[in-house]
Amino acid sequence: MKKILITGGAGFIGSHVVRLFVNKYPQHQIYNLDKLTYAGNLFNLKDVEKKTNYHFIKADIVDGEQIMDLFNLHQFDCVIHLAAESHVDRSISNPLEFVMTNVVGTVNLLNAARHIWQNDYEGKRFYHISTDEVYGSLGTQGFFTESTAYDPHSPYSAAKASSDHFVRAYHDTYGLPIVISNCSNNYGPNQFPEKLIPLFINNIRHNKPLPVYGKGENVRDWLYVVDHARAIDVIFHKGSDGETYNIGGHNEWTNIDLIKVMCKIMDEKLGRVAGTSEQLITYVKDRAGHDLRYAIDSEKLQKELGWVPSLQFEEGISITIDWYLNNQDWLDEVTSGNYLKYYEEQYVSR
Ligand code: NAD
Ligand code: TYD
Questions:
Q1: CA 288 to CA 211: how far, in whole Å?
Q2: Model confidence over 173-217: pLDDT tens digits?
Q3: pTM score, two decimals?
Q4: Which of 6, 14, 57, 120 is the most exposed, having the fewest neighbouring CB atoms within 10 Å of its CB?
Q5: What is the Å distance from ligand 1's center to 272 Cα?
Q6: Rounded to the nearest whole angstrom, what is the distance from the C-alpha of residue 258 to the centroid of ligand 2?
Q7: Residue 225: in which H helix or E strand, if any?
């Protein structure tokens, strides 16, 4: 039996990781530690909340004392660290919050793990979940590999890069048993509708403008969230100490092509005349420092650990759109209150 701490488990990716671990490993105790910011939602975990191996802890990783107390109390064996501020546009408006959560919060967790493990690292692991955005931007050719130099451009990616460096520094300096993975853009159920795909599904549903930044030519490499959770499971169990693994599905889309596919599928699903939703496309001021292209080479993970994505994009995006259309209560709930204020600030004067 292991006590596994998952941080950020009420968020988008974290909730899929918690679900996978709670169901697949009944012999382990899974602790979901989350501050429940605007992005955290316990409703995402309704189906597992009564399982006897699931525990929720409401806490803030920025509060070092609280984190140290919790580690002393529960004596976690392993950490899977996903808690973060995760949206690039919010990082442009409020960089310091990203430094606090993503950098200071990560160092607090590293300190607490080091403190309770006391150099006895048998069966211990600190797994840090990161992003491909730390590598910066690609031109039209090439892919990010594990040895690509870090070159972050947004406050979000700079804070994630910094936290990655701290995790490696704790391995090199104190011998802390760590592993890191850097994943491409995720999509799927339960993603907060500030990110491109759920935001646009919600806007199409309400016949609201679809705000495309710049010319819509930026490229992202999209992976279905459950495939990311499966990769995290594989890396957690089989990844080598101190190593980094890139995760991605070789699924590149320009934003505008992706948006047109979504419009077409939603016209069909909503019974609208073909071409109706595309008329909502509105080109708006570009994001500052907007990275042109992300694309992951995940050959190391595929060859060494045997992970492959399970879903083709066509199937994944259709399942995703169905999920949001079948869970409109979830969308209505998370887009009430503070969301409206955020939306005004982000888009109305754009
Ligand atoms: P999210 O914003 O949906 O969820 C983040 C979660 O962290 C929320 O539940 C929030 O309440 C919690 N949290 C935030 N601040 C906290 C704090 N101070 N203390 C405790 N909990 C706190 O994010 P996500 O998209 O699920 O991303 C999860 C992780 O995966 C992040 O580390 C992110 O950098 C990384 N990642 C995301 C993507 C993506 O496409 N979304 C891709 C690669 C990597
Ligand atoms: P996003 O989902 O915010 O992920 P990231 O910036 O971390 O890759 O954005 C994905 C792409 O979509 C990115 O190129 C920015 C673009 N985008 C828009 O064009 N309009 C929007 O309203 C949003 C949120 C994103």
A1: 15
A2: 999 999 999 999 999 999 999 999 999 999 999 999 999 999 999
A3: 0.98
A4: 120
A5: 35
A6: 11
A7: helix 225-238
Return the closest-CA partner of residue 277 out of 257, 258, 259: 259
Largest separation between any pair of C-alpha atoms in the chain: 64
pLDDT per position as a tens digit, 52-106: 999 999 999 999 999 999 999 999 999 999 999 999 999 999 999 999 999 999 9
**CATH class entry, domain 3-188+224-251+291-312+339-348:** alpha beta
Q: Is the CB of 86 under 6 A from ligand 2?
A: no
The residue nearest atom 32 of ligand 1, judged by CA position, is 82
| 59 CB burial (10 A radius; 0-12, 13-18, 19+) | middle
Distance 195 CA to ligand 2 centre (A): 6
Q: Are 177 and 125 in contact (CB under 8 A)?
A: yes
User: Which residue is associated with the tokens 């209505």?
Assistant: 332
